[in-house]
């Protein structure tokens, strides 16, 4: 590996924010002397992140026209596990032909090379380079740098996953059955006094359950705890509420007793 590339990868390793990856794409583009270099990921839940050296105009047009649906690079690389020269992809459809013409006019280049990456939990990413070159020159370039480009691709993906993991909230700790009961009734609109009476708890014990649930859910207040419990599936509004109402006295019975 060349000394300059080692320095670029060392800089990448020190990145602590996703924005720093943008600077790394620019440095590697200049290192390899190509028109463009980019990294794009898609997680299993559809979250996307991208950085690269393409023009803002081309990125905007790509997103606005939803070109991800017809881009042969995205479609073709998703089905592959090894580096792909764009010439190997299917550009025969009319939409693909028009898309390629538009991309070249936007300065993307007539040649391209992408490395598909499969990460944890269904994550898919692409590390791509593009340039204007003859078929022969491009084949020489990709063959010469193939191993280092694979290393760059996986280094980018590892760093992006590492940064993203640090940005995510701590995993939610499992709630006890009583904590779920308490939050369910509060989510249904019961007051604390009504919940305590319904579950036959002292208000002190009820407060302990609420505080414990808040801690486990990393919630700033009770409403935040309820929202997180719903979003994490601890409370399924409707089904859980109906089950709870079937097991314990309903709101009307409590109000009548008062």
Automatic annotation (TrEMBL):
Residues 168-233 form the HTH luxR-type domain. CDD domains: LuxR_C_like (cd06170). It comes from the Bacteria. GO terms for molecular function: DNA binding. Keywords: DNA-binding, Transcription, Transcription regulation. InterPro entries: Sig_transdc_resp-reg_C-effctor, TF_LuxR_autoind-bd_dom, TF_LuxR_autoind-bd_dom_sf, Tscrpt_reg_LuxR_C, WH-like_DNA-bd_sf. PROSITE patterns: HTH_LUXR_2. This is HTH-type quorum sensing-dependent transcriptional regulator VjbR. It comes from Pseudooctadecabacter jejudonensis. The gene is vjbR.
